[in-house]
Write a structure and sequence with these properties.
This protein has about 130 residues and is mostly beta strands. It has one domain: Protein Yojf, Chain: A (Distorted Sandwich). Helix content is about 10%, strand content about 55%. It has an eight-stranded mixed sheet, with helices on one face. The two termini are about 30 Å apart. The protein is globular and about 35 Å long. It has one helix and eleven strands; from the N terminus they run βαββββββββββ.
Length: about 130
């Protein structure tokens, strides 16, 4: 495995997204279908654009420069944070919309640090929270 994966607490999704957007420059918003039955759904460069989101009853709506780019529904699990072992200046927040079979990646410039959170949350699966600097 050439990357680290940190499972974040679902109840912190909104706080984590706000922190990442405010403190790290968003690079790309990418959504593809998990099983390959549909082409890439969104491939939006966020360079020189403002990424924002709105919490909805079903999940989140994402916007680039106030234009809606994706509705993330069926938010059953929290985001995970990933970065490649050899590339620490690039972090990706990921999640999956299982209802639609979509896999979401939001990439950011820089390494977003994490720290352990509730280690007994699930047997054998540690959960983390974003370390606020």
């Amino acid at each position: 495995m050439d990357f680290n994966v940190y499972w974040l607490l679902k109840e912190d999704d909104s706080k984590n997204l706000k922190y990442a957007i405010k403190n790290f420059s968003p690079k790309r918003f990418y959504v593809r279908n998990i099983n390959g039955s549909r082409p890439t759904i969104v491939d939006e460069s966020l360079e020189r654009k403002v990424l924002s989101f709105k919490k909805t009853k079903e999940g989140f709506s994402f916007f680039a420069d106030k234009e809606k780019i994706y509705n993330f529904n069926d938010n059953k699990k929290g985001f995970s944070l990933r970065y490649r072992l050899d590339e620490k200046e690039y972090t990706v927040l990921t999640n999956a919309d299982y209802k639609n079979g979509d896999y979401i990646e939001i990439s950011f410039h820089g390494k977003i640090e994490v720290e352990p959170a509730k280690p007994e949350r699930a047997p054998g699966i540690p959960f983390y929270k974003i370390k606020k600097s």
